[in-house]
Amino acid sequence: DGAAMAPEAAPYSWDASQDPPNENVLTLWTEVGNGIDKSQTVVWKNAVESLQFANQFLTASQDARLFVEKYMLPIISILVEQQPTKIGPHERNCVQESLALAVTIIARDLEVQVLRNGDCMLLDVLALVFNKKKAYYKGNKGNWNNHMSGLPEVRMKMIDRFRLEQGFSRLQTYLTQRIGVAPFPSLDMMHHLLTALADVIQNRPQNLEQAAAAKDVEDSAIEVARAIMQYISSCSDDTLKKFPPEAFNTMLRDLQRIFDKLVSVRRDSTCDFYAFWRELVLKLIKSASLPLRLFGWQQMDEMLEACAEHRPPPRFFEVTQAGSTFVNGRYSFTGAATADGYSQRGADISYERIIPEGEEGAGKKLTLFRCTMRSQQKWWFLSEADEEQPGTDRDIDYYQHKSKEHEETEPPQFGWVTCRNSGKDPPPRLQSIGLMVPPGEEFNTLEHQLAQWAIENDIIELVLGDSVHREIVSRSTPLIKFLASMCERDTGIESSSDKQPNQFCLQLSHLLLAWKTCSRKTDAAVSAQIYQLLVSILPSCPSSLSIPLLKRVQDSIRGDKEKGMNLNEVADFCAALAAANSSDAKAASTIDLEDDVRTEVLELLWSVLTHPEAASLKAYDTLKGYVTNELRVEPKGSEHRERYLASCVRILTENSKLQNAGTVDEAQALRMVKLTHFVLVACPREQASKLVTSNGGALPMLLFEELVASLRRRQDEAKSGFAVRKSPSSDIENKREDISLSERLHILRYAYGLSDDISMSSQQLHGLWQLCHLPRDREELMIFLASASNTGHTNNVQAAPVEVGPQQANVVQAEDILSAAFSEEVCADTFLNLFCSPSVTFKSLGVGAYQSFQYMYNRLRMSLAEGEKATAAAIDALWRICLGAGNDSVAGQAMKDLLAVYITYGGENGLIGTKTADTMETEPSNDNFGTRVFQCLSSVKKGLDNGEASATLAAERCLRILNAAIGQTGTASSITQSTLGRLASLSADASLRETVSCLPHGMRGQACYLKINVMAKRAQNSQGVQMQQDHGRNQSTMRFSIDVHPLETLQSVKCKVAAHCDCSVSNVKPISVSGRLVTSGNRGQNAEQAAPSNLASVPEDSVVDELGVHQGSEIVFLISEGQQQVQAAQNTARSSRLARSQDLSDMFCGGNQDFSGKLFEALLDVLESLPGATSNAMVDDNSVGDAHKL
Fold this sequence. Notes:
This protein is an alpha+beta fold. The protein contains 42 helices and 16 strands.
């Protein structure tokens, strides 16, 4: 490693004046050596005697030296592993005598090696003697109820004996000789030596003799530690890389522990150690080796923590902004202090203020102190001390702070909470003033020395320079945060002759260098780490640093194109700010910033959100959430919201005047509209209402005018063929336009819904209707009009409106409800003149438009003034929708709603179906359905004759209406139901002609009969044996087929089964039906009215079609033996049929033969007019195919 070659050691000089060891001594050494070599054992007495003789002849005999260098280590190793509680007094004496002899031998050998410049081979033994973890000192846990204690005091005696033998002094000389010369003692060995020295350093007693001895111990520790520090300082990078990091770190902690113990006695050596530590860290972090640099930054953290532990508490605290004003003022330090003016290290700190005369609460003693709670957490309190028992629960607490671990050493500046029983909001802020040190020592604390070292050696420039590394940046964060905290550490301290307050601290140049490193577009991981660094130190920085930094960041995206290229970097920095903030947008900010700094943060965020390329940012939504959070922080939040809304209004005003294509960046224009909505959402409801109603509703009107301008620009673009932005797909452009209109309408609805004092006029809505002439635009507008016609939720203003009843008062908050955007009169005008206008075609409109039509009609039909008009207009519109809608699902739903209008329903509000059904709420109507049908068929025929392409579709829709009308009722859609209803209304003496006239033509002949399967199971007798008959039909289970009519009753079917099984009808019991239609009948019953599969409780006058039976179904019957008692049915199917309301299908049956005849003729006319294909031609025309289907 480049160390100098060790000079050759001088030969040993043996003491000739002393007789050599005799034969017995040599034999003893041989026996002890053989025992260790063979079995690793030694006899107690022999261990002591062998070491006694070795000590006696150490300088006189080579045999003695060879014995101690080879066998003293295993001897001591065996002895220190003994459990004191398991050996007797004699054995313990042997152990302790052997340890004492070993210490003496090592001390003597160090003297010898220093004189001859040789290697001490016995330091491993010394480390073993000083190792506190050995069993003889530490003991062992043993069993759960048997702890074996050790004798740590023996170790302390050995350490002191070594000192008295001048061992530490000789060790220091020996180590000094080894600096720069290999080998030096290992790190593990130095660890045990330093630990021993740290353990023997005690507080200086008052007794002069004992104090002198304590000082001698300190001197010994300082001498050895300095020698080790000199060695480490002399090591090259190659040598340092060979040190195991964990062992190296442990040894440095041992050194720190020694010198930290010397703080109380004010030894200059403590400052010398920290100076060494700083220089070592500087050497490490400047190394070319990354592992060494990382280890250096690890040591930087250790050093920061160590300096923080020695930080003197502030001399005063200035309390301000407390709601309980008498709490405000200066609090003086009242903790324990030393005679020379330092605070007592380790003692609790507290502060006190006596309210002076003339102020509120004069004479009261207010305290600022820390209390350990039952949970072991440490809380700070601002309290009024009880005169008799201060510091107890009898104190009156005004404010408290639930401190985190890093806030326990001294009262925090921010984060105080008001005690509700006594204090008043707002909670206070604290400012530390001065330090508890003697006058003139304020700038000599370890933290001041560390800050000066960091600034003078350009540590931050080293971190953020050309060789910036992500891991280094990450590890430098604590240092930079520390330097930021030093910016105001010297508040209230006067300058000295050579130093100024806050002279060595974080500088603006450091922050600008960090941002410059990010803007150089270096490695993304490095930039991300620097963003986190800047965000983490921002709360610690004074405004004089934070604001210029934020302005420089903001300036990166302003002005020329080159600056605009930094948008992603600025957005990433803002995203890091957002990530450090609360995730709950309704919560207060979790970053404590000064008001002026928060203002600048908002300016930066707003400049990002309004940037022309902001939409491309991945973090755009995250930044909006963060801005919302910051805008809600009071007391400045209201001011910020109004300022940013004013900036939106300014741009909206400019855009609303530009109505020609190409004059506006449409994406940016839409973004400003969305940001206007964004700011309104961030406002409390009361403020938002004031903003939209001020100046006669100028803001909502401006949003309306901006919407009109955007639509006119689009029209102008379409007319002139001017393309604002090229796109490879017109579909994508159309989709963007749809989204643009939808979002603008969404925001317009929100603005008008914030207050009942503003509303839209019919003129505005008619104007929008004319501008939205394209189908996709018209549908968006219809959705908007339906939504805006009634109250709605703020979180989804485009969804179906909601009505809040009394039962919802506790669920839906008033702030979450938007009022209707226009009056009832405007709503009626909109529906009658826009939605139901004959010029409105649903050919290209979709489900959203029709659902809006549904909602508007249901809204108006309940109006006393407009209900009849709305119903009449709705009928006309529904006929047009049914016949001309391009969307088949829209046409189908319109047919259901149209037929519902013509049904007289017994519900209170005329609701068709259940409230979950997808139908309109309607009023009964006397409009002639038959007349409408003939008008439609006539129109269809005329269109077919003229060759109109839409005539075939209209014919198909007309037939669908007729088919649905034949079986349409309020509860089911089966022709069977309507037929049974008519039959049930006949008197008991009705003639056959009257009865037949109630039947549809398709139910009068044999063709309507169904063939079904029957399974008849015979029951068992009481003995479990089936009854046998003499004739052939004696099987336990019979299967056969029968023919049934759709209107045949269950009783009639039972009779057929009884006849086939040769038994009484009373013995036939229907069990179940399988293979049934879920939607019963060949006319389709509603799924909600599904036919029963269990026939045990079905009335016997129920008909086959009601049971869901169809061709191929199977009914299971049980055939019992003996006479069965017939019980009267509790209810019948006839009773429910009598309750049926009037049905449209009645027009096609009964005595209304004139209508049926005319309808038949009209249908034949349509059939004749349908286009057909010649028998000799291949037909590909879809319209012809559809015509044949019809």
